[in-house]
Amino acid sequence: MDSAISGKQRMEFLNENYFERNAVYTKIIITIVICLGLFIMVTLLQRYFPIIPSVITDLFSGLLFSGMIIYICWLLYTINIRDNINFSEIRLISPPINTGVIDGNLLAGKPSIDNSINLFTCIGSSCCKNGVDGWDSGNSICK
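and the corresponding structure tokens:
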């Protein structure tokens, strides 16, 4: 009995996520149809009202298609950053895991963002692992 209920809940969950994903695809199709409709209207307007300069209609058409492409790319981006199973979750790329390899700039004594800036946690020589002995006051960086 419990497996039937959990199976039904899982099916509802997947259907809901499928619906949300397809709603975004539907927005893409609606955007294309609206833009094509507006383009046809502008073309007919130019044909039947020759008083309107072609520069204005060409500019409007260019802006229309540019806006359409930008909006569709944004919608596709929102689809691609979402989880494939749970559309409500955004897939975040985790930061790289510290492998214990020492930065070459630290070994060479060159300034590096990693060894000179530690925002909101320390000031001056307290930022250095060696304390006051590791602080270069002339350059304001850790040695």
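(Above: one complete record from the training split.) The radius of gyration is 29 Å.
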